[in-house]
Amino acid sequence: MSTELKGKRVLVTGGTRGIGRAIVLAFAAAGATVHTCGRTDGEAAAALRSELAEFGGEHTVHAADVADPARCRALVKATTAVLGGIDVLVNNAGVVSHRTLDELDGDEWSRVIDTNLRGTFEVTKAALPSMGEGGAIVNISSAVASVGMVARTHYTASKAAIYGFTRSLCKEAGPRGIRANVVAPGIIETDQAIGLTGEVRKRYEALAALGRLGTPEDVADVVLFLSGNAARFVSGQTIVVDGGI
């Protein structure tokens, strides 16, 4: 096992389920100390705490809704109070819904934008003063941001904005030795994929050059790469993890 992430202080938002959970566990397995959050302190959070305890260390699972700016700042404050700083920030928390534009109202638009985009802004702004030379920020977007999807104008807009946010962020943070990149997952085996019918699943699998859906671990491995020294001269980039759709 690589030791380059051992001892790193990591904050991952939205880490109790799906891709976020895989990212948290991958960092813990690599020897990092991870603080993460879920929207509520429910069964998923409790299960993650149990798994993290097996790695030892001072990993923490908070309850924080990143759509609330005050909760974002409180999350970062609690993390830095324990860790003394942040070496890696992964902005993964997000929500999605399926509504065509004529069904979409302002409240739902704001809910998705506030969580997916403003949450990323608020956590990053709060965390940057605690990051230093060699720091890494990885923002999780979506492959759909570059192609679009019916009934996802709000979600696609939020995820496409992450590209622009990160391109400018890398130029602001770069002089301090902090890198910022995007990972854009394709169709991944998460809770959302469970509801796919057999026919739809086969169609999605056929779209990928590798002939399968991705796993959360496929995405987590790319996040760890971008967080480590092997990616020391990679910044402002988007890596699409979709199996070659």
TrEMBL record:
This protein's record includes keyword Kinase: no
SUPFAM superfamilies tied to this protein: NAD(P)-binding Rossmann-fold domains
Occurrences of domain Ketoreductase (ranges): 8-190
GO molecular function, one term: oxidoreductase activity, acting on the CH-OH group of donors, NAD or NADP as acceptor
Keywords: Oxidoreductase
PROSITE patterns: ADH_SHORT (PS00061)
UniProt-listed Pfam families: adh_short_C2
Keyword Oxidoreductase part of the UniProt annotation: yes
Family per record: Belongs to the short-chain dehydrogenases/reductases (SDR) family.
Record protein name field: SDR family oxidoreductase
Provenance organism: Actinacidiphila oryziradicis
